[in-house]
Write a structure and sequence with these properties.
Layout: E1 10-17, E2 20-27, H1 58-67, H2 71-76, H3 80-98, H4 105-141, H5 147-166, H6 173-203, H7 220-239, H8 243-249, H9 267-321, H10 325-358
Antiparallel strand pairs: 1-2
């Protein structure tokens, strides 16, 4: 079922602009070279009269937080290897502390410690094998993504996930709108990725993997219904997956599986491989969306600014005149809906036009 690989149409690099780190996402073109690492590029002129807070996209606003997060953020998003190392270290310290009082002696403690280490090593080998299967399916499906692309996308998605997490701390309305847009675009990318995966499953006649315990050989019609139900549930689970879990899934890494991965010939292994392919596609689509947003944010925001400013001013007046708690809550919910739903939806409409032009 192997197809000819498609070349990636976007490249992503981190470079420096005005002595600040900046994610540079751009179409790969023979006529235009991306800046080399460490090399600055010209941002281009800003149109006269453009409000200061509309000149730059969220990557430019918050890239410092993405690439140099505070200690708490770094610790929150440690890799699974570091988590396991930390776990190993904690066990080692506990074992050391009870050596003197243990009735089993040092030999038994060493065996338990070695067993713990073997669990971790076996788990990491299984994760590597699952990633190899994900890469193989990318190749056979013809997605155009190779292992190097997935590793790069994983790094960028780690920054994106950390940024989404930090969004809850933002107070500026403009920054909150951009944070809401980032989450919105990730969901759109996940929807497109799962739709693409379902297309591959149909094209290559892959039976969607479910637990054999749910099937009855004597009832094929019911089995198909069960399979369809599980496919819908898997889609919903994928679309509601937290950003950090989606990020790790790109490499087939499931942090909840601390010691064990499923058997390679099991339905759960196969399902995770397919989900990993979808996660890689979602990361790729998200970076494509961000490339369009990075290039067109000023233009798009200027188009929607007047309409939304009028709505927000009206809500502001309603909020000031509100006297009862229900009235105040109503205005608050409407403001939240404006920033989380209406503005991202309107921005998305303009972005779709740009995306169609770029294809």
């Amino acid at each position: 079922m192997e197809q000819k690989e498609k070349k990636p149409i976007f490249d992503q690099r981190v470079t420096m602009v005005d002595n600040h780190p900046h994610i540079y996402i751009a179409p790969i073109s023979e006529k235009e070279e991306l800046p080399r690492k460490g090399e600055a590029f010209e941002r281009g002129p800003v149109k006269p009269g453009t409000p200061e807070n509309l000149r730059l996209s969220f990557f430019s606003h918050h890239i410092g937080k993405l690439l140099a997060p505070d200690k708490a953020t770094v610790e929150e998003f440690v890799s699974i290897d570091k988590e396991l190392d930390t776990s190993m270290e904690a066990v080692r310290h506990k074992l050391q502390s009870i050596k003197g009082s243990s009735p089993y002696g040092e030999g038994r403690i060493s065996r338990e410690e070695l067993k713990h280490r073997h669990f971790i090593e076996d788990r990491n080998r299984a994760q590597e094998e699952l990633f190899e299967d994900i890469v193989r399916y990318h190749r056979e499906f013809g997605t155009g993504l190779v292992s190097e692309d997935l590793l790069s996308l994983h790094e960028l998605m780690q920054m994106e996930a950390a940024h989404e997490k930090a969004c809850s701390l933002e107070e500026s309305v403009h920054e909150l709108v951009e944070c809401n847009l980032l989450t919105f675009l990730r969901h759109k990318a996940s929807e497109q990725a799962w739709q693409k995966l379902e297309g591959y499953i149909a094209q290559f006649h892959i039976s969607f993997p479910i637990s054999p315990a749910m099937l009855d050989p004597a009832e094929p019609t019911r089995n198909e219904q069960v399979r369809d139900q599980q496919k819908r549930k898997s889609r919903e689970d994928f679309l509601t997956m937290p950003a950090q879990d989606l990020t790790e899934l790109v490499l087939g890494n499931i942090p909840a599986w601390v010691y064990y991965y499923p058997h390679k010939d099991s339905y759960l292994w196969q399902l995770t491989v397919l989900q990993g392919v979808a996660a890689g596609l979602a990361a790729h689509f998200l970076m494509k969306y961000l490339a369009v947003w990075e290039e067109n944010s000023t233009e798009i925001l200027s188009k929607i600014q007047q309409d939304f400013m009028e709505r927000i001013d009206e809500l502001h007046r309603r909020g000031e005149s509100a006297m009862s708690l229900p009235d105040i809550l109503s205005v608050s919910k409407e403001l939240e809906r404006t920033s989380k739903e209406q503005m991202p939806e309107e921005i998305w409409k303009h972005m779709c036009t740009k995306l169609e032009m770029s294809e």
